[in-house]
Amino acid sequence: MTILTNKKITLNKDTRTFIQEYINYVRDVNPEDIYEGLNNKQIIGNKFIFKMYQLENLDLANVDLHIENNRVFVLARFWNSQIINIGSIPLSGSLKIILNQEFYPILKITGGKYKKVVTDTYGEDTIVDDFEPYQLTLEIHKADQTTYKSQRIDEIYHRTFKNEHQLVTLSKNLMRCFAIFGLLLGLGFMFLGFFLTGLMVIIAFFGVNSYTLLLADVHMQEQRQRA
């Protein structure tokens, strides 16, 4: 991974909105990214942690660059969210050369809400919640062939599935097809006299997929209740 340059972004008024929406999204899809999945007790129990930010990265954000009037405007989105102009950087001569080659941009974040371990007068450790202003940095990486292909796949993926519900629905329908296929195949083996083989096929295809669908439905109900 070769970093061609990194520049601090001059943020605008929409940046805080983007970050808050991103945090809400991460809470749903990967809550382990919030405070690294640790609660106050776990942070205090880890003697190597003295300060932990709510958000350590913006790995799920898709970044695009738009050049206008000698400035590079940084556009960001995640999944099927609205594209937001989070800020800009000046377009220097060296940056213009970099942007004329194969590259891919990512965002780095510092600041925001954080938890700090504080020792009181009695020697007891407690957690103090505080906030620092956000700062976003644009990193431009040299695109190797693997990364370029990965980005193309990611673009096709997001164009195909407009939202998470479509992806979940397709996955569940495929699992239903495998379950039915396994049931029919297993019954076919049984009909031909291979009872144990048919039973194993039914368990492997029909049983496992049906159980997974049941767990998925239970999880979705829990998510709706929490919302």
Automatic annotation (TrEMBL):
The chain crosses the membrane at residues 178-206. Keywords: Membrane, Transmembrane, Transmembrane helix. It comes from the Bacteria. This is Uncharacterized protein. It comes from Companilactobacillus nuruki.
